[in-house]
Amino acid sequence: MCGASSCVSASFCSVRFTSCCLWQVLSLHLSDSNTYQTLYKGVLNMVIQPMRLESPNKLVTDYRAELPSIMGKFDFSPFRQESYATRLEELEARKFPREALVELLHKCNREWGADQATIHNIDKLADSKTVAVVGGQQAGLFTGPLLTLHKITSIISLASEQSKILGTTVIPVFWIAGEDHDVEEINHIFLPNRNKLKKFKWKQHQSEKIAASDIVLDNGLMHDFLKEVIAALPETAYTKDIHSTVSNIMDQSETFVDFFAKFIHFLYKNTGLVLLDSGDPELRQIERPFFRELISKQQEISQGVYGASQELQQMGYADVLGAESEDANLFCYIDGERTLLMRDSEGKWRGKADEAVFTEEELLLIAETAPERLSNNVVTRPLMQDYLLPVLGFIAGPGEIAYWANLKPGFQAVGFNMPPVMPRLSFTMLDSKTEKLLGRYRLSPEKAIASGVETEKIHYLAAQQQPPIAVVSEQVKRAMADLHAPLRHSAASIADDLGSLAEKNLRHLEEDIDFLVKRMEARIKEQHSVALSHFDHIQCTLHPENGLQERTWSIFSIWNTHGVEIWHELAQKSYDFTTPHHIVTL
Length: 586
Fold this sequence. Notes:
InterPro entries: Bacillithiol_biosynth_BshC, CC_BshC, Rossmann-like_BshC. By secondary structure, the protein is an alpha/beta fold. Helix content is 51%, strand content 13%. Helix 8 packs parallel to helix 25 (565-571) and helix 9 (219-231) packs antiparallel against helix 10. It is globular.
């Protein structure tokens, strides 16, 4: 890690990669955490602190540690600056469909309300020396969970950083996975409600197999849904602005992806962020030649990825792809529905449920004459992305890193190297109320974020019982059983059925004690309900649903209390990408 011990000169960029920015240079002389916090303060007075956080994903943990066994599944380490210099040389030697892509990106981003910074970056993409940092996500409702915004922050930050280090233009590109058709993953949001998360689900009915790019918004339903969401927010100085702003974006949007893209451009003005919809039919025309290559090299791709998956499982890693050697790794629209294809033993391509059957020649003809019918899956999407864009680096979430570890043979099959795959930044937003409650109960924010405070809540409640009710009740039960023993023995000596009745009598007495204990505990909870609600608030804020805040919380909860500028400011900062998590104190 780049710090006082390793960053001793300008040559520090050749060691394990971290941000080459002002706070690191100063850390040579001022290495304490106060320096880190102060330099991370911005106009909103947020403070960003690094936090160690163990990933539940073993592969991601080993990847961050750069274990040779797992790094062999990738072409570059994202944590070493020389990876980006080498990748840049590779990209300069390759050809990309820049002219056609620039034309399409101009059209789409203008329609989505892009500002001049974005348009300027799209223009730069026409230059053969311009490269991109890329990452993507599904088009979530109201931008989806916070992790989507954290990924965009990562893309913008790494692109800016590498542009300065490499002395070349590096633009941030967000790949909207508009071709995905799992509407159930994107049609809802969560909001805190009485210290628990409440799910709000958008009720527009859609086919299960229609891509997000093709979902036409029912404006009336969307406005009704927005009103329901706004009504669930506590009234603040920002609430009316949220309603009017989102309503305005909604009224200008035709499809689900339009709504998402316009929302993102609103949040990230003047950052130069470029958006690309992978479900755009016009993009398919640019992708046509590469679809043909994916079809022609299907066996090499599928068997290679399957082999890599088997190797990873033998190394003790989880099977995240469920890859099979006959996977086609392409979808085709059949009767209006996006259908996954497989390759059978005769070499024919067929729908997974036999919806249709194609010869290779027929599928190649579709790729040539109707490429809009085809789309990629998790295996071929990264390959198509690398065909379209000069990808200097890819920003990936934990799950993506796990499945990208399977993809090296797929890249090799089409003559590409994998780009450096950088773990995205991860944040938890800590508001002043929650921060004060942590201090009041002497709780560690790191512990609360990593594993919650349910155990501490139980300990707090137990400490209010002197002597502890559970201990006393068990003592009473044991004493009662001892006193009751002569009666049980006497009853049993008279008749077996009386012995059974005596045993039952003892159980009834114990149940009466249990009933009393429950009433006592309930009364104690009532007496300490305020304190217990504080623990529930901390849990809901920092470890909701027993996970990270970013996986469930919606933008509205933060916007409603701290304004919308926070996302823009976060994207303007430099970060140490080797740090697994950051706490943002607001």
